């Protein structure tokens, strides 16, 4: 039996415009962006699949002419090596990622293919990715999606990336894996997944109505009866945001979008033909618990109610509310990543701090406020691509006469790395700390409440308020993670 035909899509969104940056900073930023997408194109071009059964399309939604030329040049280099690869740039750039994918899937050549593998511009699939995912579709015509897990090249870079890794380990190893095993449904992660094109078409395709187009198509496909499979042992390399500013914007989109979608999908969920248990799972577990109830609980209890009770002698919260339940919930999140156990307390404190951002995002999404429609792509440093380029250079020096293409490290890639290093040595970018007012205000409230608790001999309340207040202060002064360049 001939292998299935697959379209491999690399989605390069409009991260930011280089027009706003001058001089050497603009050149360095351009080189960094090139390093990010070059390694992704290289990884996709080396997927182990028959050449006549695969097409790689690079969807460039950037608005900078220089960057577009660099991407075209990278695509041309791989086409000269015999790779079936094309470059697409939209003339009418609306709808963000959903609009980009919708435009690409409407092309005539897509009709000749059965599956589409989707990768964001900073993801690097292994050569055997398709061989590990596509065979799951055989013999199961109701299977619509096979999702792989993310693996992070910079998970140990700083405290912020370590805490993110804890959260995402729980998401993949518990949420995705359990839902996939027992319900044949979970939220599509937007990348590192393979869709049956028929499932996308019958579910309405990509819609531009929310900032979480991946969750949107997953819910609609589930309501149409399509099944999903999550593969925890298939990992795709990517990068975590290393600055609090980038992480905060990412979390705002990840929590406002689901509330937008909940408003839009609730009638369809209630009237759908799926079982009552699946409806309950969609409404309460998929939408409300992690995206609404937990941020509301953390923000109101730990950031508002608890510190205010220190100023009211008659009010006292039981120890199990402020201590045992939060630690138990954080312990469950730590379990999938046992090496992260020493970070249990920092994780609890940081998640309570992030509840401010998540609560604000939830409100803006639920009531359709202006910030709910912001679609800001998470900025990446290109750290993974730099390490790839160095490793590949070493391999190429040992096998100059080999004709087989290994993970690509072209002359343009070498030049990119060298220019990047020289620019950083000659004109290092100035890093600056931002000030976050909401976090600083809450730090003042919590530290004042901690002082009040100490004077009133409230015991364990003082320690919690002190450390939570210090966490808000550290975050408010932008002292966690890398600073913005």
Automatic annotation (TrEMBL):
Q: Which GO terms describe its biological process?
A: cell wall organization
Task: Give the EC number(s) under which this enzyme is classified.
Answer: 2.4.1.32
Q: Where is the Glycosyltransferase 2-like domain?
A: 116-324
Secretion signal: which residues?
A: none
Q: Where in the cell does this protein reside?
A: Golgi apparatus membrane
Q: Is Ligase tagged as a keyword?
A: no
Major localization listed first in the record, in broad terms: Golgi
* InterPro entries the UniProt entry points to: Glyco_trans_2-like (IPR001173), Nucleotide-diphossugar_trans (IPR029044)
Q: Report the superkingdom from the record.
A: Eukaryota
Provide the membrane topology annotation: Multi-pass membrane protein
TM region(s), chain numbering: 282-311, 317-338, 439-455
Provide the catalytic activity annotation.
Answer: GDP-mannose + (glucomannan)n = GDP + (glucomannan)n+1
Q: Which GO terms describe its cellular component?
A: Golgi membrane
Q: What keywords is this UniProt entry annotated with?
A: Cell wall biogenesis/degradation, Glycosyltransferase, Golgi apparatus, Membrane, Transferase, Transmembrane, Transmembrane helix
Q: Which GO terms describe its molecular function?
A: glucomannan 4-beta-mannosyltransferase activity
Q: Does the keyword Glycosyltransferase apply?
A: yes
Describe the family membership recorded for this protein in Swiss-Prot or TrEMBL: Belongs to the glycosyltransferase 2 family. Plant cellulose synthase-like A subfamily.
Query: What function does the entry list?
Result: Probable mannan synthase which consists of a 4-beta-mannosyltransferase activity on mannan using GDP-mannose. The beta-1,4-mannan product is the backbone for galactomannan synthesis by galactomannan galactosyltransferase. Galactomannan is a noncellulosic polysaccharides of plant cell wall.
This chain belongs to which protein, by name? glucomannan 4-beta-mannosyltransferase
């Amino acid at each position: 039996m001939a292998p299935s035909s697959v379209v491999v899509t690399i989605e390069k969104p409009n991260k930011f415009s280089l027009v706003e940056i001058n001089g050497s900073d603009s050149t360095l930023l351009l080189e960094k962006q090139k390093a990010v997408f070059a390694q992704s194109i290289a990884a996709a071009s080396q997927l182990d699949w028959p050449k006549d059964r695969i097409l790689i399309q690079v969807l460039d939604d950037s608005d900078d002419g220089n960057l577009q030329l660099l991407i075209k040049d990278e695509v041309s280099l791989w086409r000269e090596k015999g790779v079936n690869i094309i470059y697409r740039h939209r003339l009418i750039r609306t709808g963000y990622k959903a609009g980009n994918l919708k435009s690409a899937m409407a092309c005539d050549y897509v009709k000749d293919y059965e599956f589409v593998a989707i990768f964001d511009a900073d993801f690097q699939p292994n050569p055997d990715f398709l061989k590990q995912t596509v065979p799951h579709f055989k013999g199961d015509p109701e299977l619509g999606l096979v999702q792989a897990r993310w693996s992070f090249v910079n998970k140990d870079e700083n405290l912020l990336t370590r805490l993110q890794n804890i959260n995402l380990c729980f998401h993949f190893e518990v949420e995705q894996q359990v839902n996939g095993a027992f319900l044949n449904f979970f939220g599509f992660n937007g990348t590192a997944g393979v869709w049956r094109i028929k499932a996308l078409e019958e579910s309405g395709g990509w819609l531009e109505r929310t900032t979480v187009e991946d969750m949107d198509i997953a819910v609609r496909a589930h309501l149409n009866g399509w099944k999903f499979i999550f593969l925890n042992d298939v990992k795709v390399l990517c990068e975590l945001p290393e600055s609090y500013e980038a992480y905060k914007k990412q979390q705002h989109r990840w929590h406002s979008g689901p509330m937008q979608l909940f408003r839009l999908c609730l009638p369809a969920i209630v009237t759908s033909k799926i079982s009552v248990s699946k409806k309950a799972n969609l409404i309460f577990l998929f939408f409300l618990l992690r995206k609404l109830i937990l941020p509301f609980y953390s923000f109101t209890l730990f950031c508002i109610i608890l510190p205010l009770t220190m100023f009211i002698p008659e009010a006292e919260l039981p120890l199990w509310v402020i201590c045992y339940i939060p630690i138990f919930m954080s312990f469950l999140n730590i379990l999938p990543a046992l090496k992260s156990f020493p970070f249990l307390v920092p994780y609890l404190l940081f998640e309570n701090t992030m509840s401010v951002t998540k609560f604000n995002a939830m409100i803006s999404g639920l009531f359709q406020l202006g910030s709910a429609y912001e679609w800001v792509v998470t900025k990446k440093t290109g750290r993974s691509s730099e390490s790839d380029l160095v490793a590949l250079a070493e391999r190429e020096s040992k096998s100059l006469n080999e004709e087989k293409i290994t993970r690509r490290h072209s002359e343009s890639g070498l030049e990119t790395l060298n220019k990047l290093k020289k620019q950083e040595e000659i004109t290092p970018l100035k890093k600056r700390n931002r000030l976050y007012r909401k976090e600083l205000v809450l730090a003042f409230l919590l530290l004042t409440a901690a002082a009040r608790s100490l004077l009133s001999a409230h015991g364990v309340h003082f320690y919690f308020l002190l450390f939570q207040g210090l966490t808000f202060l550290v975050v408010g002064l932008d002292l966690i993670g890398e600073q913005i360049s």
